[in-house]
Amino acid sequence: MSPYQKMIRVLVAAVLWSAALTMIVPFLWMLSASLSNVDDLFSDRILLFPWPIRWRNYIDLFGEIPFGQMLWNSVFVSVSATFGTLFSCSLAGFAFARLEFPGRGILFAIVLSTLMIPAFVTVVPVFLLFRWLGWVNTHLPLIVPAFFGQAFGIFLLRQFFMTFPKDLDDAARIDGCGIARLFLSIALPLAVPALVTLALLAFMGHWNNLLSPLIYLVTVDKLTVPAGLAYFQDAYVSNWNLFLAGALISVVPTLTLFFAAQDVFVRGIVTTGMKQ
Fold it and tell me: What average pLDDT does the structure give for the chain?
């Protein structure tokens, strides 16, 4: 390795370490604050290693508000909506990629055009629709729309399904496979990296969603974690250490899922859209 290449490597490593520290330090401060006394948070010194450590903050968190119920609500909504996203997007993506039907290109262009519509534009009419259905203060407005497709997920899976050679479809049809069997037995197993990628993105999006729960949920027992933390901040604004303890707990599921499926996630992102 030449000295020039060594210097480039050192510079790249320095930039990566600087970026990593920039992201890790706020997380470490949040961890420290969640274990501190509330008075220490407003002192003149920054405490990355609090003493004494107040593990009781996490116990008090569940005593001040129904945080356990909020965690369950978030898990139920996120898992249900993620399943709905995978179900609808895989069907639509497979149809756009592997089936021939009139107007396929125009319909796919219309689906993609919905990505350019800001979500805030549809808030009022969608709320009026769900109020007419009697779904306000239920989890249905957070779950049911996922079963009707999502433009980015459809695009992601369509691009992945298009990487399969056409000979695969022909061979399956010669063996007597219909469209349903082709989808369930051949396309879905091969699309596991893309499905895992979409599942992670969908789960994180629904888990961290704040706007929709604030619009549709009214009672405390229905709130998800992001909305519950917002309520907690308003109701108990002085207990910032408990608020940060709740924020830290809310990060754990998404981090766990990402590290558990990191290899499949990266493979899904890299291979999506590549022709074989």
Answer: 83
